[in-house]
């Protein structure tokens, strides 16, 4: 391993100063540390966020859950209130990667990295959540900006995510067995966020998480698997790689949306 310095700030303000000066924030390390081992990333300074107590925890505020950025996947999946009021979110967190990943990975790290096949971005976009930073609040529709790209500015750190609790929701995915990332994942909600309509977020299929307007329009008219099945999914902008063709991913979007709606209807 090459030389680097490790800073352990005790406050968000101190961490933000270090990040603004060029330090690389370290959350769960599930992507960053692996990239460093492969020499794909070589930061000279790491800013470990693990000692900042205010960044971890789960609380219910009105009709929303506020989850701290350093909250581990395992803690979200095991939280009794989330399992009761928003089971789709708990199920998603409880099925990310394997147990070792869930024990270390954090929601803030996942969102800041914005891997095009990550699960959490679909939950944030699919539920119309709000990303809270040390500087502002960012709506989910404005936060994700493409492949490994977000609206975060230099020195800006995610501190929490506010999830409105939907009337109905479900997450379905087909895992790629070697990596455990989804080939395609679908997060569907009804009655979430402003307007209370239907949101359908897709991960794993393109160059970043995205909403599918055709499915949302059809499910707004009729929240049924049959309505989802009637929507033609265009494969033109979808990924094609050694794991699956664009056409296969297009079919998965349709099939998994039907399953998610069926699960949401319970």
Descriptive keywords:
266 residues; alpha+beta; Uridine Diphospho-n-acetylenolpyruvylglucosamine Reductase, domain 2; Enolase-like, domain 1; five-stranded antiparallel sheet; four-stranded antiparallel sheet; globular
Main beta-sheet strand count, sense and barrel state: 5 strands, antiparallel
CATH architecture of the domain at 168-265: 2-Layer Sandwich
| Uncertain runs | none
* β-strand amount: 15-25%
Average pLDDT reading: 95
Brief digest:
With 266 residues, this protein is α+β, with helices and mostly antiparallel strands.
Explained architecture:
The strands form three sheets. Strands 4-5-8-6-7 form a five-stranded antiparallel sheet. The chain has a four-stranded antiparallel sheet with strand order 9-10-11-12, sandwiched between helices. The model has no long low-confidence stretch (mean pLDDT 95). 35% of the residues lie in helices and 22% in strands. The N and C termini lie far apart (50 Å). Among the domains are: 1-47, 2-Layer Sandwich (Uridine Diphospho-n-acetylenolpyruvylglucosamine Reductase, domain 2); 168-265, Enolase-like, domain 1. The chain has 266 residues and is of the alpha+beta class.
